[in-house]
Amino acid sequence: MPTNFTVVPVNDGPPGLPGAPGRDGGSPPGAAVPETLDSVFREEEDSGNTPGTPPGRTQLTNQVKDLYKTRPFLPDQETGGYYDGKNMALFEEEIDSHPMVSSLLNKLANYTNLTQGVREHEEAEYEDGAPRGPQMGTFIGVYLPCMQNILGVILFLRLTWIVGTAGVLGTFAIVFMCCACTMLTAISMSAIATNGVVPAGGAYYMISRSLGPEVGGAVGLCFYLGTTFAGSLYILGTIEILLTYIVPSSGVFVAARPEDEAWATSNNLRVYGSACLALMALVVFVGVKYVNKLALVFLACVALSLMAIYAGVIRTVIEPPDFPICLLGNRSMKNDKFDKCAKTELVNNETQTTLLWALFCNGSHLNATCDEYFTLNNVTEMPGIPGLLSGVIKDNLWGSYGPAGVFVERRGSVSEEVQENLVMDKPYVLNDISTFFTLLVGIYFPSVTGIMAGSNRSGDLRDAQRSIPVGTILAIATTSLIYQGGASVGKNLVIGTLAWPSPWVIVIGSFFSCCGAGLQSLTGAPRLLQAIARDGIIPALQVFGHGKANGEPTWALLMTVGICEIGILIASLDAVAPILSMFFLMCYLFVNLACAVQTLLRTPAWRPRFKFYHWTLSFLGMSLCLSLMFISSWYYALVAMVIAGCMYKYIEYRGAVKEWGDGIRGLSLNAARYALIRLEEAPPHTKNWRPQLLVLCKLDSDLEVKHPRLLSLTTQMKAGKGLTIVSSVLEGTYMGRGAEAKTGEQRLKAAMQEEKTKGFSHVVVTSSLRDGFSLLVQAAGLGGMKHNTVLLAWPAGWRGAPDYCWKNFIETVRETTSAHQALLVAKNIDRFPGNQQRLEGTVDVWWIVHDGGLLMLLPFLLKQHKVWKQCRMRIFTVAQMNDNSIQMKKDLQMFLYQLRLDAQVEVVEMHESDISAFTYEKTLVMEQRSQMLKQMQLSRNERQREAQLIHDLNTASHCSSSQRAAPEQVQMTWTKEKLITERNRHREGVGVKDLFSMRPNRSNVRRMHTAVKLNAAVLTKSQNAELVLLNMPGPPRNAEGDQNYMEFLEVLMEGLERVLLIRGGGREVITIYS
User: Fold this and answer.
1) Is pLDDT larger for residue 3 or for residue 299?
2) Which DSSP helix (H) or strand (E) runs through 443?
3) Biased-composition ranges for Polar residues (predicted)?
């Protein structure tokens, strides 16, 4: 549905002015008159003319009114330009980030999809220097290049041989499969090409922007190699026509024996092909405009050749051409070494032998000894082109395949067979190569690979979205009809004999056709390589993005010539054809895949103007391309896939990061959404449990990660894969520190990349650190991909830090417990090993209580990393007085065996003993310190209350002396009597208490006793361990014991270098079942 735009002028003048409503073309009488600046100013002046306005100001206002009435637009010298752009003053603050519609449309109108330097410097500028846009239309820019590339060397040199070998039905099948493949690909390509502007790069641009830089770069290089080898194919075809039909005697190498003919032909192809390649490269180097000018000449020759062929076909109905074929028995023979197809001839009533006799006999006399097969069989002559009415099509419906070196025989003819060795000096026609159906498919397919010739010129097209689909599909339809008609012409070796009026029309036409196609390949391939290099996705190809001053890809042309020379050195048309077939088929496969993916994803940006497509057609084309790859040559197909796979991995690891909004990313988003929904259907089973980490990092004042070793530990634990979220909290408001939050995320990502931590980074801004930690523990993650484990560093130096530091830590412990999440606390995190270190000691696990098995699972995960791989795992458990330590060890060993964990087991006996004086004193010091801190905190509160009282008293005194303030506005927070009562109450409780006469709490003494004894046992067994894993005791239920809890943990870990406190989430994370 077309969209209509209406431009509405904004009226700035008062009524009565030209162009204003109500006069000379304005609104009719009685119509609504829009608001004007005059009425606005008048309202402002009337509202401002209050009784309190000074007389001078009223006089000035009246002068301004008189001035505006005589001159409705305020002059710039009097306003200072203050009212410039008043029409859109409401949006003036957003103009920089949100341009006006007029500016946007102007940019779109002046947009050119040409990359810098694609067109010639001479053609890119007018005489006045103004740049000119692309001028090629559908016929010149797409249809003719596609026709010229499709109707090339295979049509003239191999199509009749394919018909003679595969038969009419087999050839129809080959042509149909190949044409169907290209037609389906053209439909998919048309949909992609009409889904937006297609700059230079053609198929590579479409694939890379649809499937991502990795796939696009890999397939783009395959397409480049295919286009380059196509140049080799066309050059080899040009030289073959030149040396076989135009000047057959100009070969540099001449075979002395029949066995050496293949060697001489190959060397001649290499020499003349290299010279032709150098000449064509020089033409392309001079300028692409000369190639475009020659294109019409070359295509005219092709058109004349095709008309000559069809004229000859029609002529065979009236008068078949004289093209006899000589047969000996049923074996066909080459007639280049004899002039008469007969053993003897009658000359002056005397029987004489012919040149054919001399080829099979050891003399020219009649009683000479001759070849046995020659003696037993007669020589016959038959028309090579019997005509359409002769029934030749019915006789040649089925194919005739055979190995290399066998005789080409006429089916249906009777001959006397003899046992003989193959002799190369006999004039038999032999199979040059082994023929089979799949080989013919690979040889024929290059004849339909010109469909990308138009899309490769996308940078030169006036309207690529319209020209590419129309021109490409018309070219495929035209050439398909030509090939289907040509496949039924007849079974002969030289198609030129069929042409009318002269065979030279075909020879000259095929020669120029191959020349033109070769020039087109050498023109398109360097630009394709230049487009890939300029995208920057492959660092090794950066040099090929540069060229001459006018943008011609000089370095890319040199690279193309070098690769093309490799194809010429192969010196075999039949060997080069399957190579480029693989590369083109892979490119076509991914074009279909790109269209199918975009269609199925239904992304909002997928709005192609070409509507005649469907995802089923794309999948059918993709399947057909894949089938043709393996039908043509399964080993070439594997090689092409390996090359594309290697390039994909190279771009993935070494290439530049590009975000093109490709379909693979959309596919990933859909897959992620589907997986997240499935994950929420049921909680994960114990066998699927893995630590999904929420890492709470701290950023310093420069927004750098304070403890990067925390990320190293995360990487080392991620042998279990799973989710990793690295988060931090900034204190403040998001409006004030939003930019710092984004910077912090970037710093976190950089630190994660340096430590090889794969996951997500997130920085939140909250009013307090406490709220931020609570928010992350509750809301981090999405759906089924939420964290189940929190990792943070032990607050070192907490005794000298403000209270909120260790209180935030304890509250985080409480919240993870309430959320049923596991907690990992690393002490001395800066001493933990980096990813480059290798440890060989022991990892000791002190299993005190069972809280889900995470204590035993983590060492196994750590040992999967190369840092801990050489470490041995030891598990210690504690036996009480009533426990059987021997039986406990046996049971624990059996449990570890069933868990498939390799670890050394040891039971440590901790007998009941009296509480030592050291423990009692340590508990007393802890409680005294806690009491002192409480009193200090109380004193601070009292000072704050006294200051508030003084402020309130002063405020009340000031307000009572003011007449304008009401008495009820004075509100006192404290009174003097209330303050004295409050102070006495606190001092009676604990203020006067003698700290040195305190007795420690019995429960605290027992807890301290446990911590001291357990610490002594750990130091005895694990002081030299590389890592110690301990059960983390739970926090106290009320906040009064928080500081004592921190002391207990400090005593428990005292003297150990690396400690990881572990607290389970309340569920089993390890199982003995499979």
Assistant:
1) 299
2) helix 437-444
3) 48-61
